[in-house]
Here is the input.
Amino acid sequence: MQHKESLSVIRVQGQEDRAQVVAVLRAIYLKEKGWVNDPTEQIPDQDLAREDLSWFLAFRNKQPIGVLRVLYNPPLQLYAKYELTMLGKANSIDVDAFIRNNRIAEVGRFAVLTEERSSILAAAALMRAATEETVARGYTHYITDVFEDDPHSPYGFHTRVMGFIPVATHTHGELRSRSRRITLVLDLKAAYKRLKTRGHWLFRFLTGGWDERLHRRLAVHS
Here is the structure.
C-alpha cells in the first residue's frame, strides 16, 4: 500500500516545475484523453509570473503524479457564453449577487496519473495545498467543471468527499470534448464546518498544518 508519507505537493514556480506539469498533462490530457493538441499551451510561460493563478504539482517518491490549477477571480461572465442549464435549487440563485458578494476561485486542470487513481490521497493532497493558499488569500468559494461521462472524473471526490454542489450543466468549454460539463460550487466555510463536525479524516488531513489564523477565517459564525 502506498503511504501518504511518500507524497508531497509543491507550488509550481520555475521552468523545471513547469516541464513536470507538462509531462503529467501530456500523459493524461493528450495521450489518454485526447482533450488537447499541445499540453504546453495549458501552462504558458507567463503563468509562472501571474499573481491570479497558481499551479500545484504532486509527487510520489519524487516522481510527478498529478497537477491542479487555481485561478483567482475567474472571468465568470464567460460562463454565460456556455449557455448554462441551471440545476434544481440553483435556478433561484442570483448569479450577479453571488459573484458580487463572494470571492471565487476556479479549480481546473485537476489530473492524476492512472496508477494513482486507486486511492484519493493524491487528489486530497493537491486539494490540501490549493485550499490552504486559497483560504490564506481570503477566498470563500470554489467553482469547477467536470465531464459528465469521463470514467475518471473527479465528480465523486468533489461531491461526496469535499462537498461540492452541482449547480449547472453546459456543453462547451476550453477542452476538446463532446461530453457535457457539470459545474460545481464549494462553499469553503460550509465544507470546513461539515468535515469538522463529522470528525472526518479529511478535515485533519486538509487542515493539519494550518495556523490559527486560517482556522479563524473559516470558523467565524460557522
The two ends are 37 Å apart (CA to CA). The beta strands are 7-11, 53-60, 63-72, 85-86, 104-112, 141-147, 165-170, 181-187. The mean pLDDT is 89. The first helix runs from residue 15 to 32.
